[in-house]
Amino acid sequence: MVGFDLSQLPWASASFDDDRALILDVIVAAKARTGWNRLGFAPSEAWLQPRLDQFRTLIEVFAIADASQNNADVWSYGGKPEHWTVCPIHDIYQHSYGCVLCHD
Ligand SMILES: [Zn+2]
User: Which domain range does residue 18 map to?
Assistant: First the structure.
């Protein structure tokens, strides 16, 4: 099981509304199966679709006041990146340990 604490995403007051709108757009795209062909496995729609709806509800009610103010919590996985790199295979941003789709 993989998970994360929503409050520990790198939220910023100045861009909070746009960032939250982006995540809501990503949820809409995920519900429409956008990019599922790049996953390397077939997600269970019966399991995933209701969870995407639950995630959308969490994002909709999340407020900047709920965001962690502790950078050690926010950047606990590999630290804050010094630069952003894109996976040449999947054309997505990589985290400190590589691409989530390449399973680096
Ligand atoms: Zn990749």
Answer: 12-64
